[in-house]
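One record is kept unedited as follows:
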Amino acid sequence: MKMIMTLMFVVFLASCNNSSTLYFKTVTAVGISTKMDVSTSGIKIGSVENIDLQPDRSVLITLRVDPEIRIPNDAVVSMKKIDLFGKHELSIDGGVENNYFVSGDTIQYAGVVRTTSDSVSIKLIKELFRALGDGPKADSMR
């Protein structure tokens, strides 16, 4: 009886797993941290679970994502800046295939993506200094 109860408990725990695991490899983990948000189309779908250095000195990143989100096999993950203060998130974007990643698959990493918000942020900071008049002139911030 005790054995059956233990087995039922293990099955219950396995059924409670409400996320899928995806992996990607990169040459550096700079800027990536555990619990970092993972999004698609600007909506959070998961987080970074683990960061492991591999024997070949590459870095294996483990992502936990919502299993209800279907991610096309040709999608890529990249790091994007999401606010003026430099906060980043991992974003899974693109993909048009009708085949989808399943838990345990490895997704391609596209690296850090620069967005137009980077240049907009710099312009806003320059304008702030100009308006305050106390900081360096905008032309000297190059």
